[in-house]
Design brief:
Elements lengths: L6 H13 L1 E3 H14 L9 H12 L4 E7 L6 E7 L14 H16 L5 E2 H7 L10 H13 L3 E4 L2 E4 L1 H14 L5 E2 L6 E2 L2 E3 L8 E3 H8 L24 H5 L2
Antiparallel strand pairs: 1-3, 2-3, 4-6, 5-6, 7-8, 9-10
Helix pairs in contact: 1-2
Bound molecules: zinc ion (2 copies).
The site of one zinc ion has 6 residues, from loops.
């Protein structure tokens, strides 16, 4: 049975609305803080039931705090999502039609790539085939910055990936839209973009980089969990939580 919504829940939700996304550590800290500040009757360490209470009130408003994994560090994150508009139209209040078309094109590039990335050059070139109003190079670059700032894309050294927020919020849309092109991670069963792929052509499973790090940690000879062929990729180091909070 869901509990009553208290000021502590409202405080948490307001912070969630400001941030859009939070990792589990931050969410736990905030939950504790809100429970203490508003003298909540809720157990401050039970984050999941705290969020369940909020979600039961958000449901009629077609909103939800949804949990998912970051492809960058493998940590759980919470995202405030809109459940009524499950596709890119979700972004239409903030972006013009040609801007949304560029976002779709970027998503196409990322989904069809092997490593879940699209270079800024490829994105700039994709504007040549735009159906809506064409964009200048400088406009496109500005727009990409906005997508990063609004947490729809992430950027590292001129390469763009779908942000954690985007993947968690748009996963149902991505699965429906790119059915054959997207693969799930063999370990965590979420959609996989930034990942390693088994080179056995009859297998070809994908595993997220942090899932690779976790799965192969401490194994002497890495073998594919599906076909047992030798896993030829460099195994990323298993990241401790602290290293990512400093970034
Ligand atoms: Zn995974
Ligand atoms: Zn394999």
């Amino acid at each position: 049975m869901s509990q009553r919504m208290e000021d502590s829940h409202r405080g948490f939700l307001q912070a969630m609305m400001r941030n859009g996304i939070m990792d589990r550590q931050e969410a736990k800290r905030l939950c504790k803080l809100c429970c203490e500040r508003y003298k909540s009757s809720h157990a401050p360490d039970n984050l999941d039931s705290f969020i369940d209470t909020i979600n039961s009130k958000l449901q009629p408003l077609f909103m939800q705090i949804r949990k998912g994994m970051s492809e960058d560090d493998g940590n759980q994150h919470y995202v405030l999502v809109n459940t009524a508009e499950t596709d890119i139209t979700r972004m239409s209040s903030d972006y013009a039609d040609n801007e949304l078309e560029l976002f779709r094109k970027t998503m196409d590039l990322i989904v069809s790539s092997e490593n879940g990335k699209a270079s800024s050059t490829d994105i700039l070139n994709s504007t040549d085939t735009m159906a809506s109003k064409k964009m200048k190079k400088s406009q496109t670059e500005q727009l990409l910055k906005r997508f990063v700032c609004d947490k729809w894309l992430s950027e590292k050294q001129g390469e763009y990936t779908l942000s954690t927020r985007c993947i968690i919020e748009m996963e149902p849309y991505i699965r429906a839209m790119y059915q054959d092109q997207v693969k799930m991670c063999h370990i965590c069963h979420n959609v996989a973009f930034q990942c390693q792929i088994c080179e056995n052509p009859t297998c070809g499973i994908k595993i997220h980089n942090p899932c690779v790090a976790r799965y192969f940690k401490g194994r002497v000879e890495p073998r594919c969990p599906a076909c047992e062929d030798f896993w030829p990729h460099e195994i990323p180091e298993f990241q401790q939580r602290q290293s990512q909070s400093k970034r």
